[in-house]
Amino acid sequence: MGKSRRTVQIVILLLILVLGGYAITTSVSGSNGKPKEGDKAPSFELLGLDGQVHTSEEYKGKAMVINFWGTWCEPCVKEMPALQAQADKWKDQGVQFIGINAGEDQMTVDNFVRQVGVDFPIMLDRDKTSIRDYGISPMPTTFFVSNTGKISTIHIGQLDLDTLDAQISQLAKQP
Amino acid sequence: MFQNTKCECGHQNPVGTVLCEACGKPLQEAEAKSKEVLEMRYDGMARRSQRSNPNFIDRVWNFFSSVKIAVYLIVFTLVGSMLGTIYPQESTFLNIDPSVYYKETYGQLGHIYYLLGLSHTYESWWFILLLVMIGASLVICSLDRVLPLYKALNKQKIRKHMQFLTRQRLVYQGPIEEGAEEWITKAVTPLKKKGYRVHTEGNALLAEKQRFARWGPYVIHIGLIIFLLAVLARGLPGLNLDEHVAFPEGEIKKIPNTSMYLKNEQFNVEFYSEEEVPEQFRNLNKIVPKLFETKVVLYECTADCSDLSKKPQLNEVARHDVRVNHPLNYHGLKAYQFDYDLTPTIRSVTPDLVNARTGEKYGSIQIDMVDTKPTFEVGPYSLTVKDKFMDFGLDENGQPKSLSPSPNAPAFLFVIKGPELPEEGIQYLYFAKQVDKQRFRQDEINQQLVGGEIPLQLEVDSMDKVDIIQSVSYLNIRVDKAMPFVWVGAGIVMLGLVMGFYWHHRRIWIRIDDGQLTLGGHTNKNWFGFRREVSAVLKQMNLEVDEKSLDNGGNQA
Amino acid sequence: MSLLDFSSDAFIVSFFLYCAAFLLYAVAVMGKKWSNRDPQAHVDRWGKRAFIASIVALAAHFVFFFTRWAGAGHIPVSNMYEFMTFLSMMIMVAFIVVYAIYRKSLLGLFALPLTIIIMAYAAVFPQEVQPLIPALQSIWLKIHVTLAALGEAFFAVGFAAGFMYLLRTVDFSGKDKSSRRQRGWVEFTLITIVVVVGFIGTVFAFRASGYETVFVQKTASIDTEVQEDSTIEKVIYRMPPIFAPYQSEVESITPFLGMKEPLLETPSWMNGVNAGRKLNTVVWSLIVGLILYGIVRLIVRRPLGQALQPMLDGIDADDLDEISYRAIAIGFPIFTLGALIFAMIWAQIAWSRFWGWDPKEVWALITWLYYSVYLHLRLSRGWQGRKSAWLAVLGFLVVMFTLVGVNLIIAGLHSYAGAD
To answer: How many percent of chain A have pLDDT more than 90?
Structure first.
């Protein structure tokens, strides 16, 4: 009788520990929902300008520089040529540049891309799904993701063109 | 292990028993000699957590079993909750940076508030920890007490030791004239009339009623445990959805993270008229809404749902007029009216292509703001959209750009080719809104682009040709599959409260020895009413007793 | 005469009838020594008359309630004025229930002033019928608010009985630290009640004289686009400005006792455009209340508690203890159902979530947790008598903060109060 009581006590205390631990950890980490540096980068599935659907699976194994932008956002427009230059430079070194447009339609993005001359993949996030998944608020926001899929840096605001090169080379080196 | 604690009545009691389980005689030496009112908790049974040498598990168990600790936990939760109301919590805002907001709005105190984590009190680890500990206390406190209580109440003896009776908190002693058995038998009727279950054994009697009331607190605790577990379960992935979505009137939009689509067919809003608003508020220019509702149609995607390059096939599944307090409910998916915006925006404009000199109309084109057609054929002319600006403005170099993605000032740069036009075509900038045409001086710009007179114009001849989205309705879409359990928990709590506070467990023990009637009574609550009832019963037995005299002292709940 | 006008008249009739009932209770209790008849018979006879008067007053009160309902088109519990009057009505109901069980007329001597004061306090708020916003257009308005008020009414009766217990048992001649502390806190409670009465009196006095001072306040704020926004707000004071709003200018001022300009300025750390007005009101209430207390004290020449104690001679302290507990025990399930469970159900229906940690919701929870502590300490830890009585008194303060403090000091989803 005493033995079974002891078992009951231990079972209950363990349950409380497990449930309590779950409650505390989900509350502390999940209260934001926004991915932070060090988290795994959320997956995405978006229609590209090329009319094809692209998923994050396609770029597995490569480091990614994901730039969230819009044609009305001045700093986004300003930094686009620099991004294009970097994309060319790092294309064969395992760093994939991706641009995700926030909610504008095909024509708007097409016109812009043609004018500026962007050839790295541009995706259309019409429903702002990825914007939400990545917790994007102001734009431009750029996610530097390592080739293991972890978010290395989140840069909010216009990219510092001087340090951009250094940032990317660091990203490329990461295991 | 077991020490021999045999009572004089012959019953073997476990170690730690205060009152003999059979006859109720106080077992411990000091207790037996005292005249004080008996400690009737658990009818004097041994509570296991008070026994033997506690090891670590026991110590943790005893910690959570203690009512004193439970009270402290509740008080800390109470105080913590208060702190969270000093300044608005982070969750009340849509989009702020807490590390600067509190400092800016409330100064240094606000910043300290933020640094201490109080700006998200109810999601902080220590608050959740308190709730977890209260949960633990609920489980362990109840387990520890309900079993001994059940055992004690289940095996009650009718004839109890004299001290057991005389040291209750309600006591009566007095002589009677009839014979013992006669009196006992007569006493059964008035007791039964008051709802008691009566058991007799010669010259002894036990009357008991409403035992279920004792389980009240434990039912409350079970309800609270279910409630807390359900609240925890709400957060499990797949059981919840919480999206705030803007639905422009007349459009179908996908509900994120679902395969459902919702159409805002029509949005209505009515305001209280001047007369309906009391005088005191009229001057404040408060526009009070009387009613606002969204007529929605809910669709489910049946094919091509995840293929982004194709349009999804939709099937209508529900219709509802969504208002505050009247959400749409479709198999657990609910849409609540959250907010609305009455700023109108253009959906499309259908101008005619007109010869600027002769006025001849060649035909009309429909220009949609979103997903604009790239080329149009009108009469002999072809128009190609070279550039599109949703919110026309000029950048620092004087070049045209779009200031925002919303169609606040839509403009389209066409290349028009056709008869009597140069081969490469002419450029034509068209502002969808009349006010923008004037603001940006459309004709001057076009003259410059053509390098002379403008040959063609796009003109809208009536407001019918402009399709306007009158309003945007903001709905809160939610799924909360764990809610039924939350309500079940709450319901059980109510049941326990009513059981425990509105009914009371009462027991009366009577024994007659040599013409002397001894009566002892016990109730868990409401001694005042109990005294009144016993007095009434005794009156039925022709014994006039003042209610107050039945009071034998001691702590009375 | 319109229904609403009739309803206002019924309110006034009811108010005066309550005052009459109170006087009858006073005669019942204090007069038992005057007459040369049997004191118990005196208490019984006058107590019965006082009780009947209370019932009649309550009936008039119900008339007010139902005629206002008919005239306004919705149940009159949707703003501060309506709710407070409803609460005072429920306190009478709770009193009658408790009286029916215990039959102690003395309880009426304290329950009635409680009702009267809350009714008067209600009248401070704007009384006009306000149209219901869509969020309040629901059957739950009838269920949640009324039941919550009933639960709180029982807590109020518990407070009255608890306070009576303290007045009854406090030792006014003891020299030891404990007695002195008890006396001090009892007196403090009485002073607080006098300040509340002072507040009500001040509001009505200045309202009757039509006093008004208008301030113009310019507030500059930095909005989300880092632009400076400046708004101009008008603040109307209905009491002479001791504290003017922060950084404001006088538009028009009625002089008072030679005071033509505000005396002081509200400190900047007090937030909100109405912070100055509220501070001013609080300061006025304190001043008038303390003056009032001083006058009464001069007349009675003893601490107020000591003057009141003889009134409680005829009642057993244990009975008061039990009444206080019983009222709270009856009210607790009702409060749980009305203020928490039905509140959660309504919140789920209206706002899509059953609990949002909104200040009003949190304070309702705090009240619930507080009384749960009261019950646990009493039932499981043997906290009876004085400790229990103080908890009952403090509990009522928590209840009043939940009802009034949250609406006036903290803003949130629940602020339907109407300007004050």
So the answer is: 14
Domain that holds residue B58: 5-152
Q: Does B301 touch chain A (CB under 8 A)?
A: no
Contact A108, A71 (CB under 8 A): yes
- Does the model's ipTM exceed the 0.85 cut? yes
Partner-chain contact B405 A72, CB within 8 Å: yes
- The answer to whether position B228 is within a domain reads no
Asked whether B386 and B402 are in contact (CB, 8 A), the reply is no
Tell me the per-residue pLDDT of C50-85, one tens digit each, with 9 for 90 and over: 999 999 999 999 999 999 999 888 999 988 899 999
Q: Which domain holds residue C372?
A: 3-172+303-409
| Å between B124 CA and nearest CA of chain A | 6
DSSP code for C292: H
Rounded CA separation A19/B235 (Å): 12
Q: Does B307 touch chain A (CB under 8 A)?
A: yes
Pair (B14, B137) in one structural domain: yes
B339 close contact with C: CB closer than 8 A: no
The tokens describing B127, both together, are 């608050």
Q: Are strands B361-364 and B367-368 parallel, antiparallel or unpaired?
A: unpaired
8 Å CB contact of C134 and B291? yes
Among the ranges given (A22-26, B13-17, C214-218), the one the predictor scored with the smallest mean pLDDT: B13-17
Contact A13 B374 (CB under 8 A): no
Q: Nearest CA of chain C to the CA of B425: how many Å?
A: 42
pLDDT at C411: 60
pLDDT at C96 over 80: yes
Task: Mark whether B285 and B414 lie in a shared domain.
Answer: no
Verify that A27 and A80 share a domain, yes or no: no
**Do B138 and B250 reside in the same domain of the chain?**
no
**B387 part of contact set with chain A, CB < 8 Å:** yes
Nearest to A27 among B95, B123, B370 (CB): B123
pLDDT score for B4: 58
Q: Do chains C and B touch (3 or more CB pairs under 8 A)?
A: yes
Residue B235: list chain A partners with CB under 8 A: 26-27, 30
Q: What percent of chain C has pLDDT over 70?
A: 92
**Phi and psi, residue B253, nearest 5°:** -130, 150
Q: Note whether residue A37 is domain-resident.
A: no
Mark yes or no for CB contact A127/B374 under 8 Å.
Answer: no
Comparing A51-55, B385-389, C405-409, the range with the smallest average pLDDT is: C405-409
* Beta-sheet pairing, B345-349 with B367-368: antiparallel
Q: Quote the pTM value.
A: 0.89
Range of the domain at A24: 1-31
State the Cα–Cα distance between residues B319 and C23, nearest whole angstrom. 62
Mark which residues 172-231 of C lie under 8 Å from B by CB. Answer: 222
Residue of B74, B290, B526 lying closest to C131 (CB–CB): B290
Domain assignment present for residue C242? The answer is no
- Residues of A with Cβ-Cβ distance to B57 under 8 angstroms: 6, 9-10, 13
Q: Are residues B308 and B449 in the same domain?
A: no
Count of domains for chain A: 2
Q: Give the span between the Cα atoms of C130 and C418, in whole angstroms.
A: 9
Q: Using a CB-CB distance cutoff of 8 angstroms, which residues of chain C are in contact with residue B497? A: 332-333, 336-337
pLDDT band at C412 (very low <50, low <70, confident <90, very high): very low
A38 domain residue, yes or no: no
- With contact defined as beta carbons under 8 Å apart, do C215 and C277 qualify? no
Selecting from C322, C363, C378 the residue whose C-beta is nearest the C-beta of B85 gives C363
Identify whether residues A160 and A80 lie together within a single domain. yes
Q: What is the C-alpha R_g of chain C? A: 23
Contacts of C352 in chain B (CB under 8 A): 242, 327, 334, 336, 338, 476, 478
In a domain, C416, yes or no: no
Pairing of strands B516-523, B252-254: unpaired
Flag whether C328 is in a domain.
yes
Same-domain pairing of B266 and B317:
yes
Q: How many domains does chain C have?
A: 1
Residues of A in contact with B260 (CB under 8 A): none
CATH number of domain containing A133: 3.40.30.10
- Tokens at B332, concatenated: 């657990």
Rounded to the nearest angstrom, the gap between the alpha carbon of residue B296 and the centroid of all alpha carbons in its chain is: 25
